[in-house]
Amino acid sequence: MLTRKPIIGVTMGDPAGVGPEVTLKAVASDRVRETATVVVLGDYDHLEALAERYGINVGLQRVDGVDAITDDGPVDVVDFDNVGDFEFGDLRAENGRVSLEYVDRSIDLAISGEVDGLCNGPIHKQAIGMAGSEYAGHTDMMVDRTDTGSHTALLTDGTIYVTHLSIHVPLSEAIERVTTQNVLDAIRVTHEKLPEAGIEDPSLGVVGINPHAGDGGVIGTLDGEEISPAVEAAREEGIDASGPLPPDSAFNRALDDDYDCMVAMYHDQGHIPLFVNSHVDGGGVGATVLILGLPFVRATTLHGTAYDIAGRGIAAPESMITGITLAADAIRQRS
Q1: What is the pLDDT along the chain (335 residues), one digit of tens a residue?
Q2: So where does this one cross the membrane (predicted)?
Q3: Do 139 and 165 belong to one domain?
Q4: Do 212 and 297 belong to one domain?
Q5: What is the rounded CA–CA span in Å between residue 37 and residue 281?
């Protein structure tokens, strides 16, 4: 049982986006400081300049490595000193390169156990691609580096919990992926990995794909032909799964605690309820992402680099705050 506050490595993300800003705001919050010991991986001078620019009251301290971090006092920053000239909102390879350096080092620290878990600030998929990365994002890098097999992204605001059959694919492809085997696989991995988030023996609500979950075949047949057999097979395996549920009302039942977690069929079906339920002033979102199945605890913001508002000082830090605190909770569950 962990008797100290978990040590969480936080990567500041793309320097031209809102990642450094939300990182500063998050590590300055009492909620984070009371929950975890945080060490930031990023560019010290860049963070110091932004803290002054935005008037964020946070003390920063440059350290060479995590062995020098302290629990109280200034927030420790492992300084990469890799941000040169930049413009907010500027999509370019250099921004992708430096943000990848933070992520790569964070994986090293998590694998070695020098930190208990991670919370990653947003990086830009195009920028890291321009920098030569073969990965679509953080998660692919971590899965590859750790030879992780079965895993899933759990999206949550602490009230609604949701996994997805598919995420970043066109809607037409998402529909094609709704097969009995794929749905069953999504149910299985959700059931298997949710204990990492402290949810034992979860009850799962499986969301249908068509309006009214097909209405008995009147509005499409995928629900009856593909999703229903998957739910039945899962129940035969001892998994507490129900569905297909009508998509328009399914998440109301999550709010009523009828289900511990929802299994959505595609990106917007699961993301929209979370964005609405965790909305914060200014268009921000308080929900976060936990990747289940990795050998270490890892969270990340649910939002991206938000180049359109970068540099204005208005980015909401709630997603990163939630990510750090839920990561700390998950670490305690595993210890």
Answers
A1: 678 899 999 999 999 999 999 999 999 999 999 999 999 999 999 999 999 999 999 999 999 888 878 777 899 999 999 999 889 999 999 999 999 999 999 999 999 999 999 999 999 999 999 999 998 888 899 999 999 988 899 999 999 999 999 988 899 999 999 999 999 999 999 999 999 998 999 999 999 999 999 999 999 999 999 999 999 999 999 999 999 999 999 999 999 999 999 999 999 999 999 999 999 886 788 899 999 999 999 999 999 999 999 999 999 999 999 999 999 999 998 87
A2: none
A3: no
A4: no
A5: 28
**Domain match, 289 and 171 both:** no
> What's the CA gap between 238 and 106, in Å, rounded?
37
Q: Which two tokens stand for residue 25?
A: 């705001």
Joined tokens for residue 156: 């949550």
Q: Which of 251, 273, 295 is the last residue of a domain?
A: 273
Are 98 and 11 in a shared domain? yes
| AA letter at 135 | Y
CB atoms within 10 A of CB 137: 18
Structural domain total, the chain: 2
Does the model's pTM come out above 0.70?
A: yes
**Angle, helices 180-193/228-236, rounded to nearest 10 degrees:** 40
Domain that holds residue 256: 160-273
Question: What CATH number does the domain containing 262 carry?
Answer: 3.40.718.10
Tell me the two tokens of residue 96: 């992708």
- Rounded Cα gap, residues 314 and 237, in angstroms: 48
By DSSP bridging, strand 152-156 and strand 161-164 are: antiparallel
Q: Looking at the domain assignment, is residue 24 inside a domain?
A: yes
